[in-house]
Design a protein that fits this description.
Layout (H helix, E strand, L loop, with lengths): L2 E10 L8 E6 L2 H13 L3 E8 L12 E2 L2 E14 L2 E19 L5 E7 L13 H17 L16 H11 L4 H9 L3 H15 L8
Parallel strand pairs: 1-3
Antiparallel strand pairs: 1-7, 2-6, 3-4, 3-5, 5-6, 6-7
Helix pairs in contact: 3-5
């Protein structure tokens, strides 16, 4: 397993999945400096969900508690609409597990992490095809209604791959932060898709629409 040392972290009240697109408004000094350094170096930072605490640093607030598994985020677009504000779009790649983390004096978290295995390409089995077909419909309708919403381009879609389908459903479904984190923690892309399919069936969304 590959390890990364002193990876800068961006704790958020969201979960970034591999292959996912994440737009961010960056305005805190601790993250402005981090993002610009990552952009200059062509290096990723880590997105990790908050187990407890707030995204924004506040005087007297308790120290954030972080989940142990996160995702590397690579900056794909960066804009500076005004001083002290960056608008960035990131793409999630490999998952990682935090081995050791520390909070620097100015509030930035850094961690030594171990990269987890990339999801192996795995064909969607026939009994899970309805979930893939429903995702195609949902994303197609969303693109028509929200053409600039940061949805994955159809040309980069992989509706025949378990991990890709599961990850996109994890982003689309209105799941709790804790449940999304549990799904990110699952190493098997097939098992992740099976769990997502169970959630779709319970919600009556297997055909792409609620009952």
């Amino acid at each position: 397993m590959l390890t990364l040392h002193s990876l800068p972290l961006f704790p958020l009240s969201t979960v970034l999945f591999p292959g996912g697109h994440l737009p961010l408004r960056v305005f805190e000094p601790r993250y402005l400096d981090m993002v610009l350094k990552c952009q200059h170096a062509g290096a990723p930072f880590g997105v990790v969900a908050l187990e407890r605490g707030s995204e924004v640093l506040a005087a007297g607030a308790p120290i954030e508690q972080l989940q142990s598994v996160g995702t590397l985020a690579h900056i794909r677009q960066l804009e500076r609409p005004q001083p002290g504000l960056l608008l960035i779009t990131c793409v999630g790649t490999e998952r990682f597990r935090i081995d050791q983390s520390s909070r620097l004096k100015h509030g930035l978290w850094v961690a030594d992490v171990t990269l987890l295995a990339v999801d192996a390409r795995m064909a969607v089995p026939s009994d899970l095809r309805p979930a893939a077909d429903a995702l195609r419909r949902v994303l197609g309708e969303a693109r028509q209604g929200l053409p600039h919403a940061g949805l994955p381009a159809d040309g980069g879609a992989h509706y025949d791959d378990c991990g890709w389908v599961a990850n996109r459903w994890c982003e689309c479904l209105p799941l709790s932060l804790a449940l999304k984190q549990q799904l990110l923690d699952v190493d098997s892309p097939l098992l992740r898709l099976e769990l997502v399919t169970d959630l779709l069936e319970r919600a009556g969304l297997e055909q792409g629409r609620p009952e």
